[in-house]
Amino acid sequence: MMKLFKREFRALCCDPWQIALATYVPIFTLLFLWWIFSSAIPQNLPVAVVDYDNSQLSRQLIRYLNASPSIKVISFANTSDAQQAMKLGNVFALVTFPYKLKVDLIRKNQPTIDIRYNAQFLLVGKLLSSKISESLADKLHALSKIKQLLLGATIHQANININPIKHQLTALFNSNNNYIAFLSPPILIAFLQLVAGLSFINSINYEFKNNTTQTWYSLGVWKVLFVKITFYTAIMLLHGSFIYSLIYQVIGISNNGSIFTLLVALAIMLLAVWLIVLCLFFVLLNGTIVTSIFSAILAPAFAFMGITFPTQDMPKLIQYYRSIMPSSHYIDIHIKVVNYGINFVDMVLDLSSYAGFLVLVPIIVMLINKYFSSLKKQMACSEIIEAKI
After folding, report:
1. Does residue 189 contact residue 334 with C-beta atoms inside 8 Å?
2. In the chain, what percentage of residues exceed pLDDT 90?
3. Concatenated DSSP letters for 78-134?
4. 3-state secondary structure of 340
5. Rounded distance between C-alpha atoms, residue 123 and residue 116, angstroms
6. Single pTM value for the model
7. Top-confidence residue, 310 or 234
8. CA distances in angstroms from 360 to 220, 263, 275, listed in the order given
9. d(CA 116, CA 133)
């Protein structure tokens, strides 16, 4: 068996592209993706403000907005210019203070402060909507309280009138809205899944290009495949360990579970990836086409993980498409381990979601037997021709 591992290692060293896929490309890309989200919380997001009131109150509200670390106020003279800036992507939100805002408040009218945000930027829009509402509410509540006190209300009555029902939102996980904790794990796992599949495709395709599949008979077909699977699983688990160490130990993101449990779940995900690759390869027998199809299927994996959009609200057809992505099954387990702290035994029950991939096993066995039976006949025919010559 050690001889087969040495054979696989030599094949890896002989292919510069395979070395890149298995070593430095994942590391550099993972570090680059981490660097993108290194600020953790978005800051100084441009927000257009149109102040038609131009009163002391409206200027105070603008200062409250500007005081938020997430908001950078950009003033516009009119709404049309601000809306045009939003369409061009120069600002992500628009706040309009109406004419006579202060006067209407004093006269007990209900002026409307118009708040709009670009919903195309899902996470940014959600963040700005929350921060803008919080910033304005603090000042307006204080103003309303002072007004009621001047009218003779007690402090207790004023507080009740402002907030008849108090509510408190406490984020159980990722309380600081840290984008590294929120986005990095699914993005990195989706990328690792793609790199793992491409490296495994390249490994098998190397054998086909160099006609070394004929040697599998003497070495043992299933032994060769077992070594390939073990060899690349180990390499990708090393990259997975690097990801977990970077996020949960170096950066210090909260992890209520065990990294060992995450690695076991990652190993099962990789096995599902290998099954998909083997099935595609021995159906098509063309590395270029397999690479194209595999990439087309699994490249958009992040969008189907349910991190930025709930999976239950996706169309049924898309949910079925999601189920053929190993990373989608993995991320469900990852969230349970990291957030809820489930142990290894509880995680084993969740691994049953991978059961559908077992359907590929008999198909792969049949395809491999068929391919090598055909290869054996070709070899026999070529030997007969050589003997006649």
Report:
1. yes
2. 28
3. SHHHHHHHHHTTS-SEEEEEPTTHHHHHHTT-----EEEE-TTSHHHHHHHHHHHHH
4. helix
5. 14
6. 0.75
7. 234
8. 21, 23, 7
9. 11
